[in-house]
């Protein structure tokens, strides 16, 4: 009589474990970023240079950890995603990441339409102008370009950022 009870309990335990794992993996899939957004981030990484003299000596290149074969870019260093329901990339913090050289206005970074926070502080964009593509981030609330060595005039497209509540001092950038 004991043996059938042990078998029954073992089967019940395996069933509960399987159900728990299935629920966990299906709900974690909901928090993954959209594949197209991961691709856009990876394209950005591929089109920017890394130079160790471009940031504070104690910094590190966050984009170095970005690998396209990792299915969830929400786990990439410096990337923040929204909750489980949508999984959109809403924040990018690439401050002090050794980013070097100009960013073109057609860069894939500016196609991340759900972005709310963008931090590019303490990098060296070689006195290039702030890309006009910044104006496509209509949901952007926080923008930090301080100590990033942007130059030239602020593009008119920045006026399209009607939800912007925080713009870190551009005067620190050489205007």
Q: What is this structure's SSE topology?
A:
Elements: H1 2-30, H2 35-46, E1 49-50, E2 79-81, E3 89-93, E4 99-100, E5 117-119, E6 142-144, E7 166-167
Parallel strand pairs: 3-5, 5-6, 6-7
Antiparallel strand pairs: 1-4, 2-3
Protein name: Leucine-rich repeat-containing N-terminal plant-type domain-containing protein
Organism: Lactuca saligna
Subcellular location: Membrane
Walk me through what this model shows.
There is one protein chain. 23% of the residues lie in helices and 11% in strands. By secondary structure, the chain is α/β, with parallel strands linked by helices. The chain has two domains: 1-30; 32-173, Alpha-Beta Horseshoe (Leucine-rich repeat, LRR (right-handed beta-alpha superhelix)). The chain is globular and about 80 Å long.
Number of domains: 2
Query: What is the name of the CATH topology of the largest domain?
Result: Leucine-rich repeat, LRR (right-handed beta-alpha superhelix)
Number of strands: 7
CATH architecture identity of the largest domain? Alpha-Beta Horseshoe
Total of helices? 2
Strand order of the largest sheet: 2-3-5-6-7
* Mean of all residue-level pLDDT scores: 83
Residue share in β-strands = 5-15%
Kindly provide the name of the CATH class of the largest domain.
Alpha Beta
């Amino acid at each position: 009589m004991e043996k059938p009870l042990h078998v029954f309990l073992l089967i019940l335990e395996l069933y509960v474990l399987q159900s728990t794992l299935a629920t966990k993996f299906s709900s974690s899939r909901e928090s993954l970023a959209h594949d197209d957004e991961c691709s856009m981030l990876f394209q950005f990484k591929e089109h920017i240079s890394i130079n160790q003299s471009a940031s504070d000596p104690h910094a590190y290149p966050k984009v170095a950890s970005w690998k396209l074969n990792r299915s969830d870019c929400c786990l990439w260093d410096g990337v923040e995603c929204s909750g489980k329901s949508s999984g959109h990339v809403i924040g990018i913090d690439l401050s002090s990441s050794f980013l070097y050289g100009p960013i073109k206005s057609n860069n894939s970074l500016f196609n991340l339409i759900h972005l709310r926070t963008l931090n590019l502080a303490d990098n060296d964009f070689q006195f290039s102008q702030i890309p006009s593509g910044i104006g496509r981030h209509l949901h952007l609330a926080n923008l930090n370009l301080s100590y990033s060595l942007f130059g030239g005039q602020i593009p008119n497209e920045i006026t399209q950022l009607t939800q912007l509540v925080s713009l870190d001092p551009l005067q620190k950038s050489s205007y």
